Amino acid sequence: MPHVIGQASDASHDLSHLLRVWRNVQLISEVEGGNQEVLVAATLLHDCVDVPKDSPMRSRASRLAAEKATALLDSYGWTKERTASVGHAIEAHSFSAQIEPVSVEAMILQDADRLDAIGYTGIARCFYVSGRLGRALYDSEDPDAANRKLNDLDFAIDHFKTKLLKLSGSFQTESGQALAKMRHNIVEEFLSGFLAEVSSGNGH
Questions:
Q1: Does the 117-204 domain belong in CATH 1.20.1250.20?
Q2: Amino acid 203: pLDDT
Q3: CB neighbours (10 Å) of residue 64?
Q4: Under DSSP, is residue 53 helix (H, G, I), strand (E, B) or coil?
Q5: Are the CB atoms for 44 and 51 separated by under 8 Å?
Q6: For residue 176, how far is the Cα from the chain centroid?
Q7: Phi and psi torsions of 136, nearest 5°
Q8: pLDDT tens across 71-109, in order?
Q9: DSSP letters of 37-98?
Q10: Reported pTM
């Protein structure tokens, strides 16, 4: 725990995030199986290296976390096989890293982490991160990007179409897919309602 508590400066990747991901891991692994010790270690350490969302190093965050986790578990006397299992699960969990998970534990962690990016919690996290980075809620001229390119670097609501609504199609396990479908519907409903509110009277 001392190796993960220090990341609490970002409330989208703090202890409460780890607890939510662990809850998702438990829900999925009840059906899909997986080694519980590997899953616990991978869940706790999957964000143990803090790389800001707007950093050019962001796509390497999961690799850096995997390296740190592997070294840490080696120091605790874990076998090479188990540390490798944890390292792969951590490395493959990230959306931006684009690494295909090949073990059941890696598939479960990836699904569990992505579940936290959609649904009600995912919506809250999206606006929290956008606020920290100084992004506007939406483009008042064209909220739904009908006549412009999507730009989630400037507008929070654009992130729904550039990423959040794409996530449900990337889940690895049947259990994760079922949970993702429900949360995806929540995101769709929110986006539709939000755009209906902010687009009123501006010609869109």
A1: no
A2: 45
A3: 16
A4: coil
A5: no
A6: 13
A7: -75, 160
A8: 999 999 999 999 999 999 999 998 777 889 999 999 999
A9: HHHHHHHHHTT-S---TTSTTGGGHHHHHHHHHHHHHHHTT--HHHHHHHHHHHHHH-TTTT
A10: 0.88
